[in-house]
């Protein structure tokens, strides 16, 4: 299965990127950059730098649109660090990103069709833009998005999860027009947790040490914002995992809408013929074990010392 990641590259995006590269059933054909945890330009830079670290410089990166007036929320800077990677400094990337993420998305769906899955892990801005430009994209794209909250509170407001809160109009457009959409939201991602006992296992290699430093920052932030969890949520990596193996989650078939305040909820006007699946339960132990196994192997294979 070919996969495109639409990332606002902060810490859990960095994990999603590594996991997609490590997964034998996925071929990462491109990364598109959006905003959220960091501005578009910084997220694109982070993606390029991480792909170099992970020996994947052949994966193209594309710059996507931003939202007028966007600025990083203080809570995002606290959770991900000002540079999006827990203040861990990576060498400047040796290559530059391409322009026109939306064009890349449209071309890829036309070329690969059902053999492609798109995983947005930030606001739905780029995905909605592609749908508006070409209705065939909405009909043919398979999308597994990280975002939203149906059965649990939001993490920005009592109703809104961070990604949908950034651009609720785009999320609503995607909900109303997508023909094959899975929402992997806080309902399940907050049940999949990583701790410092996990990251300690990565410290035997150079790449693993870098990732452990990045993720330990995330874990410390969660200890302040959500001490009851006992670890950090694996939001974006879980969406990648579900793209590869839908059996990891139990879903409700439910057409959704996104209200202006970022609330994601069932759409009473479209109760029949649902096109969206909402993940409401997850085999968290199987997922975390798989993530640790695949990332451990990847970090070993990409480390020189």
UniProtKB/TrEMBL annotation:
Q: Which Pfam families does the protein's record reference?
A: IU_nuc_hydro
Q: Provide any one GO MF term from the record.
A: purine nucleosidase activity
Family annotation (InterPro entries): Inosine/uridine_hydrolase_dom, IUNH, Ribo_hydro-like
* SUPFAM superfamilies cross-referenced by the UniProt entry: Nucleoside hydrolase
Keyword Hydrolase listed? The answer is yes
GO annotation, biological process: purine nucleoside catabolic process
Any single GO CC term annotated in Swiss-Prot or TrEMBL for this entry: cytosol
Q: Which residues form the Inosine/uridine-preferring nucleoside hydrolase domain?
A: 3-288
Keywords (alphabetical) are: Glycosidase, Hydrolase
* Taxonomy, superkingdom: Bacteria
Q: Tell me the protein's name.
A: Putative inosine-uridine preferring nucleoside hydrolase
**Source organism per UniProt:** Corynebacterium aurimucosum (strain ATCC 700975 / DSM 44827 / CIP 107346 / CN-1) (Corynebacterium nigricans)
